[in-house]
Every structure is written in structure tokens, then in C-alpha cells.
Amino acid sequence: MKKYEIMYIVKDGLDEEARKAQIEKLHSILTKNGAKVTDVKEWGTRNFAYPIKKMTKGYYVVIKVTAEQPALKEFARKAKIDANVVRHLITADKD
Length: 95
Prior knowledge:
alpha+beta; Alpha-Beta Plaits; 4-stranded antiparallel beta sheet; 4 strands; globular
């Protein structure tokens, strides 16, 4: 399995409980498909450089995972159709 870093932005308008549930839901997509989440860093609310879907802020989360391609593809598919996920990016981790 290879190491990857995933950055995603959750809608800023969610309350704390809903945001934590959303983050847990996204992480469970990975773990159910055999991936292992090794590190989670919540950057918090940040301003966007430009408006995205009429939003100017989002809640940033960066995670490091060890995974195979099927788990990443499923995460990307579900993140793309989830209304609470503004953007996501998956990159290979150099560490």
C-alpha cells in the first residue's frame, strides 16, 4: 500500500456536531475500503482566495492515509457527490 495525503474542504456553515459527523463519515469511506488513516490535521475555517459556489470560507482538513487505488477512487467518488464537501485533493505522499 502507498501513502497519500488528502485535503478536503467541508462547508463552513455546519455546526460542530454536524462537521465532526461529516469528517467521520469521510474517514469511514476510506477505512471500510481497506485504507488506514495515519494522521488527521484540522486546519479550521479559512477564507478562500476566490468564491467557490458563492461561498467565501470553508473548513479545511488534511489527512495522511495508507491505501490502495480502489479506496481512493471510492473516496473521490463519494466526496464529489457529497453536498457538504466543497473540494478535495488526493496527492501521493513523499514521506
